[in-house]
């Protein structure tokens, strides 16, 4: 049912836990107030990750009801099969550019909405402290803010071999780093796993496939 007048802020916030993040990735604040909205920067056609240039694989918009929550963009090597996007050998980056303010608490709720459908029992128990550590480093999001989740596989090339690295970046600042491939697979899997947080958004991110 569509209301004929803007919803109060407290009612809008009450709906946030059910939104598709991730969120990383829920709405916060009164959407009827234009001052609380922001137009994210233009999506780049490629980004640099370590020594590699990753082309844009697909883009999508996470929505809740009639609101755009954030723009999402996925970067990976050209011709990466969708079936291997979560593999530890596949470098990738997911960029979320927000239109609305979002609290860390709402990001956590939304991410576990997906993770609880993907993991149960011992697998969930093993992952939870790792995901808790990542999310403990997060900051609340303001309109126009951007989160980047990146994964660089291990390499033995050149004079300086590199460990596999997962990073969470907020407005250009690294907030969290790990070398755990299982954590990387699980967190990217919020959007790209099965079932994903939003099937429509997953399809859009994997558009080149």
Give a brief outline of the structure.
With 209 residues, the protein is of the alpha+beta class. It has helices spanning 9-14, 104-118, 121-136, 181-192, 199-205; strands at residues 46-49, 52-64, 67-75, 92-98, 146-152, 165-170, 173-178. It has a single domain (9-32, 46-205), classed as Chalcone isomerase, CATH 3.50.70.
Explain the overall architecture:
Helix 2 (104-118) crosses helix 4 (181-192). The protein has 209 residues and is α+β, with helices and mostly antiparallel strands. It has a seven-stranded antiparallel sheet. Mean pLDDT is 83; it is low at 1-38. The protein has one domain (9-32, 46-205): Chalcone isomerase, CATH 3.50.70.10. It has helices spanning 9-14, 104-118, 121-136, 181-192, 199-205; strands spanning 46-49, 52-64, 67-75, 92-98, 146-152, 165-170, 173-178. 27% of the residues lie in helices and 25% in strands. It is globular and about 50 Å long. The termini are far apart.
CATH topology: Chalcone isomerase
Helicity, as a percent range: 25-40%
Distance between the termini: 35 Å
**Gyration radius, to the nearest Å?**
17 Å
Strand arrangement within the widest β-sheet reads: 1-2-3-4-5-6-7
Oligomer: single chain
Please give the number of β-strands. Answer: 7
**Topology order in helix (H) and strand (E) letters:** HEEEEHHEEEHH
The helix/strand class is alpha+beta
- Report the β-strand fraction as a percent range: 15-25%
Name the CATH class. Answer: Alpha Beta
| Count of helical regions | 5
Low-confidence stretches: 1-38
**Describe the biggest sheet?**
7 strands, antiparallel
Q: Which whole number gives the mean pLDDT? A: 83
């Amino acid at each position: 049912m569509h209301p004929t007048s803007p919803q109060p802020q407290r009612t809008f916030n009450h709906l946030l836990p059910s939104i598709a993040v991730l969120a990383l990735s829920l709405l916060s604040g009164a959407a009827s107030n234009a001052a609380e909205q922001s137009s994210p920067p233009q999506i780049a056609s490629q980004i640099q990750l370590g020594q590699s240039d990753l082309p844009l694989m697909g883009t999508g918009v996470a929505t809740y009801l009639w609101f755009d929550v954030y723009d999402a963009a996925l970067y990976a090597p050209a011709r990466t099969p969708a079936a291997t996007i979560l593999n530890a050998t596949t470098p990738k980056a997911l960029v979320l550019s927000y239109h609305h303010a979002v609290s860390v608490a709402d990001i956590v709720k939304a991410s576990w909405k997906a993770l609880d459908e993907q993991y149960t029992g011992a697998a969930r128990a093993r992952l939870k402290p790792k995901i808790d550590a990542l999310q403990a480093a997060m900051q609340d999001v303001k309109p126009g803010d951007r989160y980047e989740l990146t994964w660089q596989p291990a390499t033995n090339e050149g004079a300086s071999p590199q460990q596999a690295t997962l990073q969470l970046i907020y407005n250009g600042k690294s907030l969290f780093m790990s070398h755990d491939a299982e954590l990387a697979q699980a967190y990217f899997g919020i959007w790209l796993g099965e079932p994903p947080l939003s099937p429509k958004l997953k399809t859009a991110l994997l558009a080149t496939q």
